[in-house]
């Protein structure tokens, strides 16, 4: 996980911006259920009346209500209203939301009591708020009897206040929702009595609330779009940076590091694994950050409703966590296997595509198909298992969510019946519950994907943290050499994972103007020796010096800039002939390119092409022959005009005539350079100034052709096996041209 988060450090400013936008999105998302609840409870049920405290009240009701108030409440009541003579009614002075809520809290219960009493069918209770002296003796006697039934003394100086307390006690059993509904019904009756248009009041409220909902929705949509944009931009940046880091790191790998990771694995790590990180980065920024904000906001709103149904959410979250826990235990090991299986499929695919001609030549198509089918089948089975496990998750979680909705409705129905909850509150509670569950669900869904991304991140980190064995020393020299004298001083070499030396006690010196040939049987270490010079590998013991300086003390760039290297297999890049020849010498002019091509004996086939030097070269040089590919590779090295030439068996695909012509043309060009030729054919190296004969990694012969024929049995056997008696005799006598 830490590797995934480390990739986001660079984009901290985007993360902060996304977090701010998510807060805005969550605020809007969490506000909508409240508005829905208000539309139902206030707009539909209460006709648009939002508060229990009426903004307009008739003079009669105003004075009658005062009879139910204590001294302090009476003062607050009088301070709250002002009399409007033209309307013969009282109007609320301050209609701010905070003030109205404060007045609702103070007078809501007494308003509900008054409305309940004034709505009684019994005429005595209807007139209780009026002047009792206007009642007939029979009415007064009946009233006294009823008051005694409620436990109120008819002679009490605070008769109406005492009666209010009795009714408040009775109302408390109905619940806050019912009490609020009574008070708002009184407000509606007063608005009607004051001549207000109740239909307009309701319509205005519905339009006002609807407009707020639309505004919130639009703001939420804008925030969500911006979050998606910045999250995608950040994740794309993370992917780009990782690919760049991997590419840069791999470019600095020596052959030892390249052998540690297979080509197929490196390709997978720089593509599929980076894609996993990129995808999870988007999810982290869009879902993981949003889920807790949404869940916490939902919990706060649910608690504020004080509905007593919070246990349903706890139950739902517990069930969701259990389901996800089971799935993680079952599916996680398979996710860890998946990346290795993808590597395997890529490896086999690459081998088949690269060796397609060989496969066809040996009629192995069926066998290779079976090998691919096996790898592909293993990957398919693992993916099917994980996908089936994950496909079980969604129905199970939807069942939990719908089950919770039914449970909430069932519990809320009883509370609505008891008057302690309104329908809109139930609707909002269901919505908030779904938000909370979805928040946990998003976190758990991401937690399922994180292990696979964590595996990918570790694989990428493994590449990035691989210690490079071939690197510049602390004070590496950057000045180019003057003479290019190369000396092997008792060099031993073995591969990192090898137990025995591949080369042992190699000791010789090559000077400018000399051609040093390296020959030996297959597997004797010829190419390995050549690769030590440009530091593709470092020696195990001994040292290689360039003008007396250990090449490990020379910067890699400086060392390799003086070398023209032609590998065993001609490697070309997509582009044209010009770009391939000038690959190592970007500043070379057209004349230099043509000269290099002419020396490499490539001019003839180049001139035969319609576009000449601008002829296209396909990826890997697949549209040219092996000999043409080799000649272009040689031209590329010549164009660089280096001080050291290394031809690693680079003439093997050339016919004898072309080989001879190329070496003759090459000699004047390399007269001041040190030339190394790794060869299989004796005819290629007959005139070399120094021939090194290798046998099982050991230097068994060193000298000219004539010297080695006399002193080195191994060389003489190689020469006799390749040359006819006449050629062999002529080569000894110096007649071979």
TrEMBL record:
Indicate yes or no for the key word Metal-binding: no
**Which Pfam families does its entry note?**
ABC_membrane (PF00664), ABC_tran (PF00005)
Spans traversing the lipid bilayer = 213-231, 287-305, 311-331, 392-413, 425-450
**Domain named ABC transporter: which ranges?**
486-721
One GO cellular component this record assigns the protein to is: plasma membrane
Q: What are the GO MF terms of this UniProt record? A: ABC-type transporter activity; ATP binding; ATP hydrolysis activity
Q: Which InterPro entries match?
A: AAA+_ATPase, ABC1_TM_dom, ABC1_TM_sf, ABC_transporter-like_ATP-bd, ABC_transporter-like_CS, P-loop_NTPase, Type_1_exporter
Domain (ABC transmembrane type-1): residue spans on this chain: 210-452
Its placement in the membrane is given as: Multi-pass membrane protein
Q: Does the keyword Nucleotidyltransferase apply?
A: no
Task: Write out the entry's keywords from A to Z.
Answer: ATP-binding, Cell membrane, Membrane, Nucleotide-binding, Transmembrane, Transmembrane helix, Transport
Annotated localization? Cell membrane
- Report the superkingdom from the record: Bacteria
Q: Which PANTHER family match?
A: ABC TRANSPORTER, ATP-BINDING_PERMEASE PROTEIN, ATP-BINDING CASSETTE SUB-FAMILY B
Q: What is this protein called?
A: ABC transporter ATP-binding protein
Query: What organism does the record attribute this protein to?
Result: Eubacterium ventriosum
């Amino acid at each position: 996980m830490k590797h995934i988060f480390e990739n986001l450090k660079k984009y901290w400013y985007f993360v902060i911006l996304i977090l701010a936008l998510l807060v805005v999105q969550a605020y809007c998302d969490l506000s909508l259920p409240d508005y829905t609840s208000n539309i139902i409870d206030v707009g539909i049920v209460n006709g648009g009346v939002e508060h229990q405290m009426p903004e307009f009240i008739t003079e009669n009701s105003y004075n009658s209500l005062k009879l139910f108030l204590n001294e302090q409440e009476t003062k607050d009541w009088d301070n709250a209203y002002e009399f409007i003579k033209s309307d013969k009614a009282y109007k609320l002075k301050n209609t701010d939301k905070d003030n109205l809520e404060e007045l609702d809290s103070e007078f809501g219960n007494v308003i509900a009591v008054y409305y309940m009493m004034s709505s009684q069918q019994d005429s005595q209770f209807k007139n209780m708020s009026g002047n009792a002296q206007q009642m007939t003796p029979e009415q007064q006697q009946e009233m006294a009897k009823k008051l005694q039934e409620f436990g109120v003394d008819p002679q009490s100086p605070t008769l109406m206040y005492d009666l209010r307390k009795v009714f408040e006690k009775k109302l408390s059993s109905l619940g806050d929702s019912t009490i609020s509904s009574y008070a708002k019904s009184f407000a509606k009756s007063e608005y009607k009595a004051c001549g207000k248009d109740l239909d307009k009041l309701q319509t205005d409220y519905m339009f006002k609330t609807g407009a707020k909902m639309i505004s919130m929705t639009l703001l939420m949509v804008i925030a969500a779009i911006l979050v998606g944009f910045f999250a995608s931009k950040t994740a794309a940046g993370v992917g780009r940076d990782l690919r760049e880091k991997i590419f840069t790191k791999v470019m600095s790998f020596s052959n030892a590091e390249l052998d540690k990771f297979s080509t197929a694995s490196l390709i997978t790590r720089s593509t599929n694994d980076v894609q996993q990180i990129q995808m999870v980065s988007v999810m982290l920024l869009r879902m993981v950050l949003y889920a807790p904000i949404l869940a916490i906001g939902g919990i706060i709103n649910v608690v504020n409703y004080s509905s007593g149904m919070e246990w349903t959410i706890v139950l739902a979250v517990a069930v969701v966590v259990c389901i996800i826990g089971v799935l993680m235990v079952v599916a996680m090991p398979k996710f860890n296997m998946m990346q290795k299986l993808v590597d395997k499929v890529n490896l086999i695919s690459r081998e088949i595509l690269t060796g397609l001609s060989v496969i066809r030549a040996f009629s192995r198509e069926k066998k290779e198909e079976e090998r691919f089918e096996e790898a592909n089948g293993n990957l398919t089975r693992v993916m099917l298992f994980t996908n089936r496990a994950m496909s079980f998750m969604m129905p199970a979680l939807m069942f939990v969510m719908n089950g919770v909705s039914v449970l909430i409705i069932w519990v809320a129905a009883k509370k609505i019946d008891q008057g302690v909850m309104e329908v809109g509150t139930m609707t909002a509670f269901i919505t908030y519950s779904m938000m909370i569950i979805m928040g946990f669900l998003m976190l758990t869904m991401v937690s399922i994907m994180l292990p696979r991304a964590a595996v990918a991140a570790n694989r990428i980190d493994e590449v990035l943290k691989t210690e490079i064995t071939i690197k510049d020393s602390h004070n590496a020299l950057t000045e180019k050499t003057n003479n290019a004298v190369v000396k092997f001083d008792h060099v031993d070499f073995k591969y990192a994972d090898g137990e025995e030396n591949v080369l042992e006690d190699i000791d010789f010196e090559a000077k400018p103007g000399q051609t040093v040939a390296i020959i030996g049987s297959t597997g004797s270490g010829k190419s390995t020796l050549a690769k030590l010079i440009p530091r593709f590998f470092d020696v195990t013991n001994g040292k290689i010096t360039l003008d007396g300086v250990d090449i490990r003390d020379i910067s890699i760039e400086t060392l390799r800039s003086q070398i023209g290297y032609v590998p065993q297999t001609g490697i070309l890049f997509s582009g044209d002939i010009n770009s391939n020849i000038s690959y190592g010498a970007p500043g070379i002019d057209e004349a230099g390119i043509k000269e290099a091509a002419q020396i490499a004996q490539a001019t003839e086939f180049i001139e035969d092409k319609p576009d000449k030097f601008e002829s296209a070269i396909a990826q890997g040089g697949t549209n040219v022959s092996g000999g043409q590919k080799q000649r272009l590779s040689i031209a590329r090295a010549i164009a660089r005009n280096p001080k050291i030439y290394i031809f690693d068996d680079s003439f093997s695909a050339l016919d004898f005539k072309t080989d001879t012509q190329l070496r003759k043309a090459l000699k004047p060009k390399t007269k001041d350079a040190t030339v190394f030729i790794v060869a299989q054919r004796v005819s290629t190296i007959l005139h070399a100034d120094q021939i090194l004969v290798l046998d099982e990694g050991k230097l068994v012969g060193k000298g000219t052709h004539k010297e080695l024929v006399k002193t080195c049995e191994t060389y003489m056997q190689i020469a006799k096996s390749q040359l006819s008696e006449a050629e062999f005799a002529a080569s000894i006598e110096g007649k071979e041209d």
